[in-house]
Amino acid sequence: xxxxxxxxxxxxxxxxxxxxxxxxxxxxxxxxxxxxxxxxxxxxxxxxxxxxxxxxxxxxxxxxxxxxxxxxxxxxxxxxxxxxxxxxxxxxxxxxxxxxxxxxxxxxxxxxxxxxxxxxxxxxxxxxxxxxxxxxxxxxxxxxxxxxxxxxxxxxx
Length: 157
Description:
mainly alpha
């Protein structure tokens, strides 16, 4: 049974499950920001535990393959080193999980913050779509909306 599970969770399968798995969560943030399901699955510790488990599994796979995981710090030396690191599909998936989890965390914060300041769901939803596709631009758009609805400028929370 463990062999079947191991054979099922290939790198490609994990990638597909992550991509398909976050789409309903983004739709829930956009269309049902105040739902109980959002509180249970998206804004709680549930998703960080799932992403951390996947992350740990991939690091475990890298260690089993005798990869030098400390060599990954060479990515800070230049774009060529980053490109070389991304040529390994395990490292590429690690960074994709990192990106997806941070992006979803940002989306959940914007969703909750929009409710707190009474920003219409339609406008918050537009910001969430921008955050999904082009994270920092969506955050800046949301920040300007927040200034307008909060009637003050906060440079920190």
